[in-house]
Amino acid sequence: KVEVIYMNPNLQQVSSVYFFVMLITLGLAILLIRYTVTLRRYLKEFTRVSKKVSNKEFHTRFNTYVKGELGELSKNFNYMIQIMDSTIEEVEYKHLQLTSIVKSVSHGILAIDIKGKILLINDIAKEMLKCDIETNLEGINFKFVVGDKKILETFQKYVGSTQNEVIELNLKDNLVYRIKIDPVYLQDSKHAIIGSIINIEDITELVKLENMRKDFVANVSHELKTPLTSITGFVETLKINDDIDKNTRNHFLDIIEKESNRLKGLIEDILLLSSIENGQDLSYEKVKLFDVFKEVCEITEYIASSKNITISYNFEDEDVCIYGFRDNIKQIFLNLIDNGIKYTPKDGHIEVVQHYDENRQNIILEFKDNGIGIPKESLNRIFERFYRVDKARSRDIGGTGLGLAITKHMVKSLGGNITVESILGIGSDFIVTIPVDIK
Hints:
Largest sheet: 5 strands, antiparallel
Strand content: 15-25%
Structural class: alpha+beta
Number of helices: 10
Helix content: 40-55%
Number of strands: 12
Strand order of the largest sheet: 2-1-5-4-3
Distance between the termini: 140 Å
Oligomer: single chain
Shape: elongated
């Protein structure tokens, strides 16, 4: 017996719709899962890349390749990282260039913002401000860095000013600084100041040289005027007095001759000192010191014997030689021996001693006398131009006041040094140190 079942057409249609809906839902679910997996992978890659970028690893890039808007975002993000990388490299390179330039400047350089924070400072400035060179001062307010009261007050007064300021400060230890403060304006603006550039220059030596120049000019004028006044005065006296007796006339002429010789010697010493300081082109040779000493002894023998002064010597090495200009070396011996004769009383004694230092790296020459000596307060100035311990006595014995200054320059031209030890009333010891000739 066969039973035939007939399905309701409406029920069959509902089943078809239900199946179609389930199929679409399944398809959407699959697409959603795939999109979620892709998005999660993308976000994970984004997190990885962003962390590396935040750690300044600008070489990293997106490795996930997706299409659509996320793909466009990945592409743009990679391009942004590339631009950042190249920009930062350029900034770092320019900063390195600027730092190198600032470090190479021989003056102290500081850049300070409007709030007083240090933006840039070189090692020279740190040294001038007595700071630790190894310490990073960028970002620190200059008030906590500058220790000298005068410099700090200058910074506080002029930093942020719209005017260019130049100030000279006399500091401790006889230091002289020239501080130049210039305003820094915002780009393309002449009114908005964002900080200041400070240039600190140590002009101590320049000031000393300028003072020496002024003193030299004043002293030369005075030294030249004195003999010229005497010569002019006695010449006028002789001209207006025809009835002057022969002895008086000869006495006046002797004074004129003496003052003329003094004037001639002064001019010769000035020219000699100028030629030495200007680095005259000299023909150097190997010079035997003992031979020079004996030659000078012959020249000064007459003057020494006139005061009954004996000159002795003690050379550790009579064959010792140095490389230099013979006339200058001779002048060193002549000036120091002649100086001893002038300032040593009758029946005195002068001794020239030659020996080496402990390491035999330097030749030591000592010029000892038992003369009048030099006061302690004058020892540091004895080699200055025109400086005289006793001006009246120096003029009486014919000194120009330049002999020891010339000697000092000649010794320096040999790479050496000269010092003096003296006790007033007992005597002096001029010590010349010259490096051993290695040529």
